[in-house]
Amino acid sequence: MIKFAGLSVQEIVQTYSDTLIRIAVQQTKNMAEAEDIVQEVYMTLMRQNKPFAHEAHLKAWLIKVTFNKCKDYFKSSRVKKTVPITDEMAFIAKEEQMVLTEIFELPSEERVIVYLHYYEGYTTAEIADLLEINVNTVGSKLRRARMKLKTILEEGSKV
Asked: Domain HTH luxR-type spans what residues (predicted)?
């Protein structure tokens, strides 16, 4: 049986599928495409010859590959009109969905950083490493995103 960081493929799928699907849906705004992307991530993992030092390294690798597959998706001809996100994300709790709707109004780069920081619990340094950008850039984008979200949420509550 093949193991990565001490976990079987089945354990990896059970542990990380929800996270990877959420990232892919958050990026593509399309559940079917997100599922395809996550399947491609697992196929890439199966072809991987590189050992993972520990489970945190494996998780970071899976997330990074998911983001890269999402970028590839937008470069491909598969991009179609998307279905409204609220219809696609029934597996997310209602209170989480409310904020996710506002997060989807952010530009893609800020959306990714907000998701990784608040939903996955990564620090700005870890996000910088995952996305291969400067840690100060991550901090700036996170601050900008917070200000935009505050404005979006305040305007939404006045309606």
From this structure: 121-148
The three-class DSSP label of residue 93 is coil
CA dist 24 and 38 (Å) reads: 7
Phi then psi dihedrals of residue 33, to 5 deg? -65, -40
Q: Which residues contact 90 (CB under 8 A, 6 or more apart)?
A: none
Per-block average pLDDT, block size 10, for the chain (159 residues)?
86 94 88 94 90 91 94 73 46 48 81 87 91 93 90 67
Predicted pLDDT of residue 87 = 47
**CB proximity list for 112: less than 8 A, separation 6 or greater:** 26, 27, 67, 131
pLDDT, residue 104, reads 77
3-state percent breakdown (helix, strand, coil) of the chain, nearest 5: 75, 5, 25
Domains annotated on the chain, with CATH: 1-83 (1.10.1740), 93-159 (1.10.10.10)
Q: Where are the alpha helices (DSSP H) in 76-134?
A: 85-88, 94-103, 108-114, 124-131
Q: Give the pLDDT score at 127.
A: 92
What's the rounded Cα separation, in Å, for the pair 139 and 19? 22
